[in-house]
Structures are given as C-alpha cells and as structure tokens.
Amino acid sequence: MTVAAGIGYALVALGPSLSLFVSVISRKPFLILTLLSSTLVWLVSLIILSGLWRPFLPLKANVWWPYALLVLSSVCFQEGFRFLFWKVYKRLEDVLDSFADRISRPRLFLSDKLQIALAGGLGHGVAHAVFFCLSVLTPAFGPATFYVERCSKTSSSHVMSLQPCVTAIIALAFVTIHTFSMVIAFEGYAKGNKVDQVIVPVIHLAAGMLTLVNFASEGCLIGVPLLYLVASLTLVHCGKMVWQRLIESRNQSVPLQ
Amino acid sequence: MDRNQRPRSILESLGEELIGILTPVSICMFTVVLLVCVLNSDPSSSSASFSSIATAAYAESDSDSSWDKFVGAFLNSLVFVAAITVATFVLVLLFYLRCVNFLKFYMGFSAFIVLGNLGGEILVLLIDRFRFPIDSITFLILLFNFSVVGVFAVFMSRFSILVTQGYLVVIGVLVAYFFTLLPEWTTWTLLVALAIYDIAAVLLPVGPLRLLVEMAISRDEDIPALVYEARPVIRNDSRLVQRRVWRERRSSDIENTEVRVVRAEAEAEGEDLGSRERSEISVPLIERRPDQGESSETFLEGIGLGSSGAIKLGLGDFIFYSVLVGRAAMYDLMTVYACYLAIIAGLGVTLMLLSVYQKALPALPVSIMLGVVFYFLARLLLEVFVVQCSSNLVMF
C-alpha cells in the first residue's frame, strides 16, 4: 500500500475528529489534557482486555461465536470503565468548582461540561481509530502479523481487497459513536436520566455485534451500512439531548423578564 | 450579546503551561519517529555500524543467546552510567571552582558539534534517501550557517524565544536519533539504568545533581545548561494575555522568586570515533512562583498546571523520551502510540508530584518506567488481540 493511500485511509478514519480537534479542542488547553487522559484510559482498558483474553488467542478463523463472546465481554468491561471515568470526572468537577470559587470566577458552565464530555468521547474515538485501524494499516517493521482476507470484491479479472478501506470506514463510524455516546452518558449520569444511561451501552453493544456480520462472505456490504445507521442514531439522539439542555439552561438563566 | 457579557470561564486558560511543555515534547518524539521510519526502512544498511561509548563493553550480534545479550547489555549500561557519573562530578567540580565561562564555552561548542556534525550526517542520509540534488559547497555553507545561528540562539540572551525553542528541539531530535541506532537490548537496559541513576543522582544527599542544584540556588546563578523554556505567559486583569517574545536574563527579571529545582541531569555521549565526549547538563523542571506583585490572579496551586512563570524541561528528558519512542517505532506503530501516551502520562504525574512534594524530583524515572512497561505490554499482549480482531473486521 502506498504512502498516499495510507494517508488517505488515515484521514478517512480520523478526518472529522481532526477537524473537531482543531476547531473546538485546541482552543482550550484543558480539553487537550482531557483528550490525552481519556485516550490513555481507553488504552489501559484495551490492554487489560487483551491480557484477560491472551490465553484464548489466537481464535480459530471462520468460527464466529468466540468473537461474539469477545465483543460481549469487551463491551461490558468498557462500559464499566466509562462509569469509573465518570466518577473521576465528577471528583475533578468538584475540584474545579471549588478552585473557581477561590479565585472568584464563575463555576463551570453547561457548555464547559459538554465540551469536557466531548473531549473525553473524542479521546475514546481516537484511541479506537488508532489502535484498531491505523496500526493495522501502517506497514510494520517487525515480524509479520496474521492477516485474514475478510472483505474482498471479485470483479471479472481479479480480486480486489477492500479490507483497508473498509477498516477505515468502520473506524469512522466507531469514532462517531464513541465521541457522542460519551456526551450522552455524561449527561445521563449527571441528570440521573435512565434512558440516556441505558442507551449508551446498548448502542455500543449493537455496534460491536454488527461488526460480526462481516464474517459472512460479502457481509461487509450489509454490516457497514447498518453500522452507519447506528452511528446516525447516536448523533441524532445526542443532538436532541444537547439542544434540549441548552434551551433549558438558557430559560433558567434568563428569569422573568 | 449574552455571551459577550458573560465572564470568562476558568476553562479558557487552565492548563496552558502544561500544554506549553507537552507540545515540544510531542514534536520532538514525532520527528524522531518520522526519521526512524524514513531512514530505517532498509534494514540491511547501517544497523550495526554505530559504535560509541555505550557499546564499548559488548557489541550485540544476532547470533548470541538471550542471556548473553542481556549480560552484555547490562555491562554496556554500567559503563555508560559510570561515564556519566564521572562527567557529572567533573562538571560539579568546575562549577564549584566558578569556571562558569569555560562551561558556557563548552556548551556552545557542543551545540555547534551536534548541529554541525550529527545534523550534517542526518541531512546527508536524507539527501541520499530522497535523491535530493544539491552540491557539497552549498550544503556546507548552509549547514555552517545553520549551526552558527543555533549556537547563538542557545546561548545569547535577548534572542527570539521561538527560534531558541526550535533549535533546542532540533538538538534533541538529532541526539535522540543517534541513540536509537544502538542495539536493541542495550537501548532498553540503558534507559532503565538511566532512570535508576536519575533517582540516585537527585535524591541521594551525595548525588552530583543535587550538589549542583544546591550550589546554583545558594549562589543564585544560572546553571550553564541546555534547558527548554516554555514561553512564559504574563497575565493581566484584562483579557489581554501577553507572551514574552524575547528571552531575558534570569537575574534581571525576577527579584524575589522562589526557584524550586526538580531535577538536573548530565549526560555524556561518545561519538562514533569514541574520542570526543560531550556533556550536557540539563536542568529539567524548574518551577517558578509568580512574582508577589505581578499578577492579581493566583492559580491552582495544588496541581502543577497552574503555576505562572515558565516551566522548564531539560534537554536530556527530551532526548531519552524520544529514544524510547524511536526504539518502539522500530517494532511497530502500535507500540509507538502506547509508549507516547505512557510518557505523556508520566510527565503529568511527575509535575503533579512536584507540586505535592515541593522539592527536587527526578523527571526521567516515572515516564521511562511507564514507557517500558507499556511497550512490553503492547508488544506481548495488545498486538495479538487487536490484530486478531481487526483483521477479521470485528471491532468494538
């Protein structure tokens, strides 16, 4: 794969997150720190998961149920991590609020909290894209790794491997899902809204399970559009929720006038 | 309208100084990884040809057994750390005898050698790799000018801060790239040995770096060292945030500052010919308290984020972080990402420890240990797992 193609696939997976980074996150240094710590937290979760699953790998090719088990356990573990992440963020929010009081500045606004949640979600998305997509795309100097041809399209004269392209596209969907479900989750935990709290693990699990569809031959032609359906659902739900909150908070801050 | 009247939230400016240090560290690591990827893509070429003081005891070859390699690498690191200790003690002696001018001259000379010699070698390798058409006379003139400006940037005061920072990062990149050419086992044991040496040199009462730093504080002088200084941000009550553009002499600008020195480190490096040795003292993390009258805002004192004034990081830290990441790049890019995050986390932890303990702390150990741990975890555990999943297009 040429360098240009590699850069192209990397931009497919990470382009929107890059623009989010440049426009929102790079303006405030604290958000960059949140992004970096969030990426680190999810990396640690991936390492622990790989440690737990190491004795059972490598799994047999073409048998799909061990992978289903893997996805299920990983999603549950990561959702647990998300809850822990929320707890730590709550503690940090208290510290920041007391600090703001001390220097007589206003406490964190709603938009600040939303931005921190967005940065956390973006960290999750970037961690996913980097470890699942970029490191498999880029040429390895070390010993060769297993490579299974999963997604290919037979045309009349030759078989074309769509795998790197599909990997990038799937990674893009997951980046979207992770970024915005973190916002939904944080708001859900903050307001105690059960719907929001439950919908995030459900979306994550559904997305994970949908990738199992790729096991069928030419399955990626069905799996990927469905995955994007889930991603757009996440986006719509998040957008609605944020809009409602902002309207609520504006109504609260402009009292009877 | 509502927005404009709303006072600025604390989120606008919190953590700015930390980002001011993380950015050059990240740029240095990224450049070293890029150089490693570009210049090492042909493995048959020059991997065994770098010999220096760090390979004096044992030259690794592929046919040795693991135990032999480990023992050899251990001996190499012992020799290297011993050389560094001796060099640091010599520097302490010179500083004690107030030969500051000699030290400054030596720093400038070593910066010139690094930029000219190492920079020239890397540029030649790059020109060769990319088939860039340039003749030797033009090349020599450009290289000479580049090195001389670098020496001025590093040691003159009232020089543009941005140029100084750029040159310091370049020096870090050049030295780090040459360290990555060491054989593999030697590199890892060397990094761990240096982290341990760092703890010993800073925390033990007899440690050379602690002596050096205490002398500098008691005399209220600058240690002649290669130190990266983030641009200090001067805050006013109004929205305007000014950044100092000129680097100013320390003695003239702050009267009653409390300098808390975190760590100082000396390193010696041998050249290919083994005959030249260069020492660079780096005083990594110095935190300054804001002037009593300067700013009306106090910052978050608990976390290292908030101290106003510049955060300084020594060049030795830059170099060894980049060596770790560069060596990780020689295996696979997944390890690079893991090690990068580990090092950044280590740096953050060190700054937090600094603000808690309020005394001299070594900055290398936490990052290096985290980096090494994450490298081996990523290589042994993570890679198999992730490749297994993503090659079957199963993701979560």
Automatic annotation (TrEMBL), chain A:
Cited InterPro entries: Aph-1
Q: Which UniProt keywords apply?
A: Membrane, Notch signaling pathway, Transmembrane, Transmembrane helix
Residue spans making up a coiled coil are none
One GO cellular component term: membrane
Which Pfam family is an annotated match for this chain, by its short name?
A: Aph-1
Give the membrane topology, semicolon-separated if more than one: Multi-pass membrane protein
Question: Which superkingdom heads the taxonomic lineage of this protein's source?
Answer: Eukaryota
Per UniProt, subcellular location reads as: Membrane
What are the TM regions of this chain, as residue ranges? 6-25, 30-52, 64-85, 116-141, 161-186, 198-216, 222-243
Could you mention a single GO BP entry for this protein? Notch signaling pathway
Q: Which family does it belong to?
A: Belongs to the APH-1 family.
Q: What is this protein called?
A: Gamma-secretase subunit APH1-like
Species of the source: Thlaspi arvense
From TrEMBL, chain B:
Task: Tell me where in or outside the cell this protein is found.
Answer: Endoplasmic reticulum membrane; Golgi apparatus membrane
Q: What does this protein do?
A: Probable subunit of the gamma-secretase complex, an endoprotease complex that catalyzes the intramembrane cleavage of integral membrane proteins such as Notch receptors.
Organism equals: Thlaspi arvense
User: Which PANTHER family does the record associate with it?
Assistant: PRESENILIN, PRESENILIN HOMOLOG
Xref: SMART domains: PSN
The UniProt entry, under InterPro entries, shows: Peptidase_A22A (IPR001108), Preselin/SPP (IPR006639), Presenilin_C (IPR042524)
Membrane topology category: Multi-pass membrane protein
Q: Give the stretches traversing the membrane.
A: 21-41, 73-97, 109-127, 133-155, 162-182, 188-209, 337-357, 363-382
**GO biological processes:** membrane protein ectodomain proteolysis; Notch signaling pathway; protein processing
The record's family statement is:
Belongs to the peptidase A22A family.
Task: Give the EC number.
Answer: 3.4.23.-
Q: Give the GO molecular function terms.
A: aspartic endopeptidase activity, intramembrane cleaving
Cellular component, GO, one term: gamma-secretase complex
Q: Which UniProt keywords apply?
A: Endoplasmic reticulum, Golgi apparatus, Hydrolase, Membrane, Notch signaling pathway, Protease, Transmembrane, Transmembrane helix
Name of this protein = Presenilin
What Pfam families does the database record attribute to this sequence? Answer: Presenilin
| Assembly and binders | Homodimer. Probable component of the gamma-secretase complex, a complex composed of a presenilin homodimer, nicastrin, APH1 and PEN2.
**Predominant subcellular localization, coarse grouping:** endoplasmic reticulum
Domain remarks in the Swiss-Prot or TrEMBL record: The PAL motif is required for normal active site conformation.
